[in-house]
Amino acid sequence: MRWIVLIVDDHPLVGEAFELSIRAAYPHIDVGRVTSATEAEAYVRQHNARISLVLLDLMLPDATGFSALIRLQQLLPDKPIAIVSARADAHAVAMARTFGVAAYLSKSAPVESLVNAVGAILRGEALFPETEAPPPAARDFTRKIASLSAGQLKVLTALADGRLNKQIAADMNITEGTVKQHLSAIFRKLGVSNRTQAILAIRPYLNDMSSGSRA
Predict the structure, then answer these.
(1) What is the DSSP string of 89-126?
(2) Whether 146 contacts 139, CB under 8 Å
């Protein structure tokens, strides 16, 4: 069976260059490339057993912040997902670590370095840039997010996407009662009283992760 490295990036030049370079460097591996979170989910459902690594851009037209990451983690719970982004500031990297990515790669790095990173990640190495400590408010928020379980993170991200309890339950294959239990724990850990306050608490950070220059 040939393994697949999946590139999720809506920038055609970046995606194509990365795809061609990986194909040349790893002829024994197939490379898939899609341009949106929706296409990525469909591709993963079709090729789930063969995917060995996902290289994910945070800046996608149909995703907010880490929502695409969470959706792909649900489909590929045991496979590494690496963020490949034009942004590599302390807050972005800290948030990525909190959400459990395998690596955080900068698009500003030479293509050769990015290609070499693919092999390192597949060998189980964790690659993250050195950054300064994020500001206190961001550190406090990151600590709160880090206190959430994997299930609670998924529910919170779906909540920020505007999904209802019934939709969240169906997406995660759990009961609505379990969703409500997750929400109660989320409210307590974030120090809020209801879903509106939870959304308001997390949305600035998700929006912040979706802003910035494209590269």
Answers:
(1) -HHHHHHHHHTT-SEEEETTS-HHHHHHHHHHHHTT--
(2) no
Instruction: Spell out the residues 6+ positions from residue 105 whose beta carbon is closer than 8 angstroms to its own.
Output: 55, 82, 83, 84, 85, 114, 117, 127
DSSP secondary structure string for all residues of 137-195: HHHHHHHHHHTS-HHHHHHHHHHHTT--HHHHHHHHT--HHHHHHHHHHHHHHHT-SSH
Consecutive H or E run containing 203: helix 195-209
User: What pTM did the predictor assign?
Assistant: 0.74
Please state, in angstroms and rounded to a whole number, the distance separating the CA atoms of residues 178 and 55.
31
Number of residues written out for the chain = 215
- Structural contact between residues 159 and 198, judged by C-beta atoms closer than 8 angstroms: yes
Go through 132-141 and write b for each residue having 16 or more CB atoms within 10 A of its CB, e for each that does not. eebeeebeeb
pLDDT in tens, 20-35: 999 999 999 999 999 9
